[in-house]
Automatic annotation (TrEMBL):
Keyword tags: GTP-binding, Nucleotide-binding
Name of the protein this chain belongs to: Tr-type G domain-containing protein
GTP-binding keyword on record: yes
Signal peptide bounds: none
Organism in which the protein naturally occurs: Brassica cretica (Mustard)
Superkingdom to which the source organism belongs: Eukaryota
Domain Tr-type G intervals: 7-188, 183-420
Pfam families documented for this protein: EF-G_D2, EFG_C, EFL1, GTP_EFTU
Length: 1188
């Protein structure tokens, strides 16, 4: 056959939804070929020639793909008929693979259906050329009885809808993408407090994209499309961050929905890292809450550009019944409060969310202060700039100031830009003069309303009153419909439910998606712009100080990778860098199994799939540079990897092959072959290599991207075990999978061999246990009562630092002395309490201290910018920490100015003697090196130690003292590590209940004497060093016991909201939980009360449930870990004075105080000795009935 013959061949398949007429069309084509030799024309459409199976004839549906060769003029046609039923979609794939073109049938009456989407997608995958056949035109005439114009409108709509489907499938092409495409990408996360409307807003944005292909507009807000887990639907809260790819005009948006509950704040961190901008939602009624502070801080840490969305505006009208002026005042207050939070974080005024909440102003805002505020260019959120919108997500409407400015510009004869600047703040329109003036230009007693009230809120209130009030004026609605040319179906206008009518009008007058998405594409940055200013946070700049062993080529390539990330280079020859923020598990049945991806997976020996059973682990990732392709081999880099260390750092890098890449569509996945920089994707094949997060790179010489910062740490710990001991291996496997699937959970094994699971809170723990039981382990699990962590310290607040420093001298009498069993070494320990500010600083800087003290090997890497964003760029974190340590030591002192200077001088000397920190070499306890004579009067030698930490921090120079050449001096040097080890052991387990110590400073003086001849014996097994270690540990613990020990417990900051009638029951619950109320205030414009309190973590379990029961569901609470607080009660209190004996009894009948109860509970759990009476009330016999 020559080429001319091949050009006359057409391979065609017929694709359509079921019952849209494929086989009938095939019948007529067969009858027209061969002069009716195969099929008589009068039988066409009745015989169903291609359905020759009995089952097909009986059911009247096609169940297989079959082919027939036909002739038309000089052409040879291979016609393949395919099924339309979803159950036989594999037959469509086989037909499409053998064809070059497709006839896509659509019923003119029924329109586009689900299988129409599927066959169009299959045609796009197989790169077929489609033609559209609109079938059953006669039904428009005979059944629907449409006029020609109505039929024309219907046909236009169907063609437009099919074209939209094809264009969306062609969105993610695999050919090269230039820079202009990256400029049209927006990566956005939605952040808010719980129940402020994030998922409802996401529903409406999804419904507006793709003409309702993913979600019908009438179901938006009810389906909760992004909450596809059963537990999320049951609890009606979001529990994970999930992404979906949307289209808006020429822009591609990766929208990430995140949880608002404090227990899932880690998911907010993962969403923020992959985004460039954030939509921050605030409820217009409830206002700013605790999680609002947290998400604004997270956006600031990750250098995201935020936009503000004020949601639930309708509640101001329908529930609170506010006037437009009162609503305007409320909205101004919320915008002002959010701006205050952002400016406070920018100025680094507050270190934590709780501090910012407690310091937030509650006063009124004056017009003068507002005018100054609105003119300040540094203010983040300003409606007149366009980065604030006002919405009602439930009803699907929203607007920015620009929408009304454009509408009124022609009516008022003003420029839209000028009007937009005036539609917010104290600006007033004078109708007589047609001028816009400020507050000062108004005449005294003028009742002129601000322009935002007059031109924006008043019309909204009128529409709501006309629709919802029984005697409302429907002419207002008709005027709005006519003025804006709104097309509303007649059946919706005649709806008897006024709420539905109002929703129909408002959603078409002020579409929510247009207001939010237009703001997003205009005010949120594209990946190229965003990565340029986010690069100090993503990859902090490093420079090498000293060390000639560094390979300059490695350093140059690492810097090239950093510049590629900064430029968001999407060329094929640039290094590919991807950050995986979390791993998430989905059922294997949800993985797409079509096209090239199915072939790739079938040919794979996937060890990960074998280990996962029915669960498949995908990586939630963002491409920061280069091109990512399916099947590509990449390096998986952990956070500890250092490319300059060579072989010693190889354990932190692995090589892996990417199996598949997907674009995330909420609960669905769309497979792609390659994706360019700037996009958010899901990656399959990394399960065995990543447990939490990692960096992927096409080159070894790449710095890992900075680790994510979580707002809280997992504090709720429980011990778990299988109900049946034989299921232990299944539980172990389930724990490994859970640890991989949850970015925040921690799995450890305690000293007693228990498997301990740490979660963020009760809701998070319940979800983890459910996932273990139902998905990962699939065994019954026994869960212990919560294991609460405590700390141990001594009495005092550390404010009188000068007196403590003076008493720190070892010449003082209040020290503890211990001697080793062989008598050669005498240990003297003195302990003092550190100021609270210094303890808090050491605790919050543990990661940085660990990096500084641990060192960087043969060469030193200096990070020019700390992981936390700073107001100043290129701040040296070591220098910043040094200055903070100096200030924190004396900031809380209560002495006079003269004593303060002395205290500062003494503290500066002491900072040069820091030997070690503990526990784990980076905790909030300090070991000072002794400052005494090397040789004592009795001939013994003082083990001086070395100020190792002071040298690392730069408080003192690294000077090495040359000791005399003697065996005793050499032995003293070897004992230094034993003393430090004893200090670490002591601070890791205190004397009260083996919990870590908190905020203590120790000075340890060890005197080593010569060994007598009679006792001299070879030291082969380190017996003496072990004796010194034990003696130091015992001496430190005894010193704490001698100086009035106290227990320190973790505290939650609790925010409660309740109606006035439930205040009493709420306070009763708080008092039973040992809570300390901080403040109580009524929310402006509502009858609800907001109460702030501190609740001990040990008393928080079951608190929310008890609160709901006690207040009949009328009160709600949210808690976030705040700080550590010392319990003032003495655990060893015994009445001694007459007053104490009179109040508490003679000692025999004194009930254990709270501190002693907590200590005994921990000791009992750990199997330690507990001093308690075995026999109670031994003086009186008690019967079982207790009647005497």
């Amino acid at each position: 056959m020559d080429e001319s013959d091949a050009r006359n061949i057409r391979n065609i398949c017929i694709l359509a939804h079921v019952d849209h007429g494929k086989t009938t069309l095939a019948d007529h084509l067969i009858a027209s070929s061969g002069d009716g030799e195969l099929l008589k024309p009068r039988l066409a459409g009745k015989v169903r020639y291609m359905d020759y199976l009995d089952e097909e004839q009986r059911r009247a549906i096609t169940m297989k793909s079959s082919s027939i060769s036909l002739r038309y003029k000089d052409y040879s046609l291979n016609l393949i008929d395919s099924p339309g039923h979803m159950d036989f979609c594999s037959e469509v794939s086989t037909a499409a693979r053998l064809s070059d073109g497709a006839l896509v049938l659509v019923d003119a009456v029924e329109g586009v259906h689900i299988q129409t989407h599927a066959v169009l997608r299959q045609a796009w995958i197989e790169k077929l050329t489609p033609c559209l056949v609109l079938n059953k035109i006669d039904r428009l005439i005979c059944e629907l009885r449409l006029s020609p114009m109505e039929a024309y409108t219907r046909l236009i709509r169907i063609v437009h809808e099919v074209n939209g489907i094809v264009s969306r499938h062609s969105l993610y092409k695999t050919e090269e993408m230039d820079e202009s495409d990256a400029r049209n990408i927006r990566n956005i996360c939605i952040l808010a407090h719980v129940d402020h409307g994030k998922t409802t807003l996401a529903d409406h944005l999804i419904a507006s994209s793709g003409d309702g292909e993913l979600l019908k507009p009438r179901l938006a807000g009810k389906v909760r499309y992004m909450d596809y887990l059963d537990e999320e639907q049951r609890r009606a809260i979001t529990m994970k961050s999930s992404s979906i790819s949307l289209r808006y005009k020429d822009y591609s948006l990766n929208l990430i929905d995140s949880p608002g509950h404090m227990d899932f704040c880690s998911e907010v961190s993962t969403a923020a890292r992959l985004s460039d901008g954030a939509l921050v939602l605030v409820d217009a009624v409830e206002g700013v809450h605790i999680q609002t502070h947290a998400v604004l801080r997270q956006a600031w840490i990750e250098k995201l550009t935020p936009c503000l969305v004020l949601n639930k505006i309708d509640r101001l009208i329908c529930e609170l019944r506010l006037s437009p002026m009162e609503a305007y005042t409320r909205l101004i207050r919320i915008v002002h409060e959010v701006n205050g939070i952002v400016s406070a974080y920018k100025s680094e005024k507050y270190l934590s969310d709780v501090d910012s909440i407690l310091a937030s102003p509650s006063g009124e805002i004056t017009d003068e202060s507002l005018e100054l505020l609105e003119d300040d260019e540094e203010v983040t959120f300003q409606p007149q700039k366009g980065n604030v919108v006002f919405v009602c997500a439930l009803d699907g409407w929203g607007f920015g100031v620009s929408e009304f400015a454009n509408f009124y510009a022609s009516k008022l004869g003003a420029k839209a830009d000028t009007l937009q600047k005036s539609l917010w703040g104290p600006r007033y329109y004078i109708p007589k003069t047609k001028m816009i003036v400020g507050k000062k230009s108004l005449s005294a007693g003028s009742k002129t309303k601000p322009m935002f009230v007059q031109f924006v809120l008043d019309p909204l209130w009128q529409v709501y009153e006309a629709a919802l009030d029984p005697g409302g004026d429907r002419a207002v609605l008709e005027k709005v419909i006519k003025s804006f040319n709104l097309i509303i179906p007649q059946r919706e206008l005649q709806n008897k439910d006024p709420k539905n009518l109002l929703q129909s009008v408002m959603s078409r007058w002020l579409p929510l998606s247009d207001a939010v998405l237009s703001m997003a594409v205009k005010h949120l940055p594209d990946p190229i712009s965003a990565q340029a200013y986010r690069i100090p946070r993503l990859v902090p700049e490093r420079k090498v100080i000293g060390g000639n062993e560094v390979d300059s080529s490695v350093l140059a390539e690492a810097e090239l990778v950093r510049r590629s990330i900064e430029a968001c280079d999407s060329s094929r020859d640039s290094p590919c860098v991807v950050f995986v923020s979390k791993m998430f598990a989905i059922p294997m049945k949800m993985i797409p199994q079509g096209g090239d991806h199915r072939e790739r997976m079938n040919g794979l020996n996937d060890d990960d799939s074998k280990s996962e059973s029915d669960e498949c682990f995908l990586a939630f990732a963002r491409i920061f540079s280069g091109v990512l392709r399916a099947g590509q081999r990449v390096f998986v880099i952990s956070a500890l990897y250092d490319p300059l260390k060579g072989e010693s750092s190889q354990k932190y890098i692995q090589e892996a092959e990417l199996h598949s890449i997907y674009l995330m569509m909420g609960q669905g996945l769309k497979p792609v072959n390659e994706v360019k920089a700037g996009n958010v994707v899901a990656i399959r094949g990394l399960g065995p290599y990543i447990s939490k997060s990692a960096t992927l790179s096409s080159t070894r010489n790449c710095w890992p991207l900075a680790s994510m910062e979580f707002q809280v740490s997992p504090t709720l710990r429980v011990a778990i075990e299988p109900s049946d001991p034989s299921d232990m291996s299944a539980l172990m496997k389930g724990l490994r999978l859970l640890n991989r699937a949850d970015p925040f959970v921690e799995i450890t094994v305690s000293a007693r061999g228990e498997h301990v699971l740490a979660a963020a809170g009760e809701v998070h723990l319940e979800r983890c246990i459910k996932d273990l039981t139902d998905r990962f382990a699939r065994v019954n699990i026994e869960v212990s009562s919560p294991l609460v962590s405590y700390r141990e310290t001594i009495e005092g607040d550390g404010s009188n630092l000068l007196e403590s420093l003076r008493s720190l001298s070892l010449n003082a009498s209040d020290y503890v002395e211990k001697r080793t069993p062989n008598g050669r070494c005498v240990i003297r320990v003195h302990v003092m309490k550190l100021p609270h500010s210094l303890t808090k600083l050491l605790d919050e800087s543990t990661d940085l201290l660990g990096d500084i003290i641990g060192g960087k090997g043969s060469h030193s890497i200096k990070i020019l910018e700390s992981q936390s964003p700073s107001l100043e760029e290129n701040v040296d974190p070591v220098e910043a920490l040094k200055s903070q340590l100096v200030e924190a030591g004396v900031s809380s002192s209560s002495e006079t100015e003269n004593d303060r200077e002395k205290c500062k001088a003494e503290w500066a000397k002491l900072l040069k003697r820091i030997w070690a920190l503990g526990p784990r070499e980076k905790g909030p306890n300090i070991l000072f090196a002794p400052d005494g004579k090397r040789i004592c009067e009795d001939g013994s030698i003082l083990v001086r130690g070395s100020p190792h930490v002071s040298q690392r921090l730069g408080f003192t120079e690294d000077s090495t003292e040359t000791p005399p050449d003697s065996a005793l001096y050499s032995e003293a040097l070897t004992l230094e590590s034993s003393i430090v080890s004893g200090f670490q052991l002591a601070t890791a387990s205190g004397p009260l209940c083996d919990e870590p110590m908190w905020g203590l400073a120790f000075t340890i003086e060890s005197h080593l004497a010569e060994d007598s001849e009679t006792e001299k014996q070879p030291e082969n097994f380190g017996i003496f060093t072990g004796q010194v270690m034990t003696a130091v540990k015992d001496a430190c613990r005894a010193a704490v016991l001698q100086t009035n020990p106290r227990i320190v417990e973790a505290m939650y900051f609790c925010e409660l909201n309740t109606a006035p009638e439930y205040l009493g029951p709420m306070y009763a619950v708080l008092s039973r939980r040992r809570a300390r109320v901080l403040k109580e205030e009524m929310q402006e414009g509502s009858s609800l009360f907001t109460v702030h309190a501190y609740v001990p973590v040990s008393e928080s379990f079951g608190f929310a449930e008890e609160l709901r029961k006690g207040t009949s569901g009328g009160a709600s609470a949210l808690m976030v870990l705040s700080h550590w607080e010392m319990l003032e009660e003495d655990p060893f209190f015994v009445p001694k004075t007459e007053e104490e004996i009179e109040e508490f009894g003679d000692g025999a009948s004194v009930l254990p105080n709270t501190a002693r109860k907590l200590i005994n509970a921990v000791r009992r759990r750990k199997g330690l000795h507990v001093e308690e009476k075995v026999v109670q009330h031994a003086t009186k016999q008690r019967t079982l009935a207790r009647k005497v």
